[in-house]
Structures are given as structure tokens and as C-alpha cells.
């Protein structure tokens, strides 16, 4: 069965909310945030190795990052790196990977002797971002394996929902339907499986507090599990335009002609997320409440929450620091630099490659706008 397990890792983003640490030339998935010697992408690959054969791991990324992926994951074949010639959000990204997996499965069936006693196994696929942090990896792996078992027996699009611990405004939320429980709790730290009632966008603080208090809402992790037939059917029903584009290349995907086909076709795909294009429309969407020490590490705030703090709740990364009358800051400078901070509370102080950012931690959602403003004013020099 493991032979038919696949992992799709989405690694094409810029990570502008982590600017100036994350830059166009080297986004956050390629960075070592905690000084462990492993980037977020490398850590993501490592946690899937016990579940999915390395040959069945696909990384979808922008063509600009092909060489960085190969450098960081040297045991991948170049064919396992699917390069997007243009950014078109997560639905086309996933559709590309699904088409490639279909080609891989077709080749496997051609090379396998049929056996009447063995039923044809369906490809089981987990899709995950490249920039998440998972603290309890054993529980994570058991959760994924349980998800695989569920979609083996159900025509389902399954997503993992993280139990919220605070009224977070930087994540989307999933509302579960308590009246439609498919499975009760089966393992410690692994919740039951519920029909999804609704997806919601990132809320304001007041609404996030309501979500937390209700107990019905989970953080949207962006981790999906489904079988190959189920996700193909979902694309055909809800995003037929994208499905048709990839179907037109079924004869060349998985061959030497794949790259030229993708170069010409992919930019014509609409830019749409898998959540909006499929998950919010399909009727067979389920959520598994999960708790394995997850963070999408998407903001300075999430990095602050996860990092070791001094007696005044300050976080220092990569550099040396001295604080005077300062509380609740996160400071990161290049290695070998010293920060002396006086009279500053609850700020982000970050320097990287000629850019110094100083802003309030509660203004972190504006960092993407700072990134865009500097791109316009300085013509991309600092992005």
C-alpha cells in the first residue's frame, strides 16, 4: 500500500509576511529559522519520509527555485520537482501534481503484472505546505496514516483542522458539523472526523474570540488528504476549466514534452485557491480535528510564540542582544551582530540583506503591504 502513497509539497510562495527575512530570491521555505541546520522545506520532507516513499514525493514550486530545491533535497530526481512558470494560487498547483501522479500510476500499472486476487489500489495523496512547523511528529504521522485509512474507505476530501489555542486573526477557520460525525475519537491527540459546515476567511479579533469560545471552529491548516479518483472527480465537477487544461496534456505529462506543455498552458489557468475553487463547493468535505504542535510559521507573531523567551518575554534569533526596560520584542539580526534595545515594547526588529524593519508586533499583518510599497518605490531592489 505504501507504494501508492504520495505527498505533494507546495513550495512556490514568497512569504512576504516574513519580509525582510524572507525574500524573492530565497523565500522562507528555504531558510533555517531556528539554527537547527535544516530549512523548513527540509524539515517538511523529513517528516513525510516514514509515510511516503521518497520517489513519491513531489514538490511544486516556482521555476525560479528549482535549483534551491535540488540543492536542499539532493535525493530527489529532477522529475519530482514540478515547476510553475507563473504563480496561479493553489488550485492549479494541485491540479498539476494530480496530473503528474496519474501519469506515475499509469506507468506503475503498465509495469505490474495483474493479479486476480489483489484489488487495484488507489493512489492516496497528502498535500501540505512547505513552511509549517510540527513539534510532535509521531502524532503527526499517526494522524496522516489515519487520514489515509479514512479516504481509502470513503469518497472524501479530508482536511486537517487544528484546535485553536488563541483568537488568531492570521488563519482561516473551519466550522465542523457536530451533528455529522463520521468517526468518533480513535487515538489520543487524533480527533473524530466531521462533515465540514463552513470555511471562513481570516476574522477580526472580536470574531476570532467568538470562534475560540464556541468550540466549533478549527484553524485551517492547508493540509489535505484524498484519493486520486476523489480529487479528480472534484476538479471535474467544480473546476472543469482547469481539469480540461490538464486533461489536454495527458499524453505528454510524465514525458520529456511535459515541461514545454506546462510552460505554454499553465499561465492560462485562472488564479484560484483550492479552498475557494473546490473545498467550499464540494459536498464530501470532512475535517479531522488535530493537535500535534502545529504552526504555519506564516508571521513574525507565530515565530515569537514558538521561540524561547528571556525573563522579559523578549525573543532573540541569530544574534546577540542586551535589553533595557524592554518587553515582548522579537529581534533578529545577521549572525555576529549585536542589538542593544532600550525602552521598546512589543516590537519586531528585523534586519536582513540591507533592510531594517521596526514595527509593532500587532501591526504584523501590515508587513505584506510594507513589502509591496517598497517593491513599487524601489523597483524591487529590496524584495
Description:
The protein has a five-stranded mixed β-barrel. The chain has a four-stranded mixed β-sheet with strand order 12-14-16-17, with no helix packed on it. The longest helix has 21 residues, at 90-110. The chain contains eleven helices and 17 strands. With 383 residues, it is an alpha/beta fold. The protein folds into two domains: 2-295, Spore Coat Polysaccharide Biosynthesis Protein SpsA, Chain A, CATH 3.90.550.10; 300-377, no CATH class. The mean pLDDT is 91. The protein has helices at residues 40-48, 66-72, 90-110, 137-153, 205-214, 228-238, 240-247, 258-265, 274-279, 300-306, 367-377, and strands at residues 5-10, 57-62, 81-84, 124-129, 133-134, 157-162, 173-183, 193-200, 217-227, 285-290, 294-295, 315-317, 320-324, 330-332, 338-342, 347-352, 355-360. The chain starts with a strand and ends in a 6-residue tail after the last helix. Helix 3 crosses helix 7. 30% of the residues lie in helices and 25% in strands. It is globular, with a radius of gyration of 22 Å.
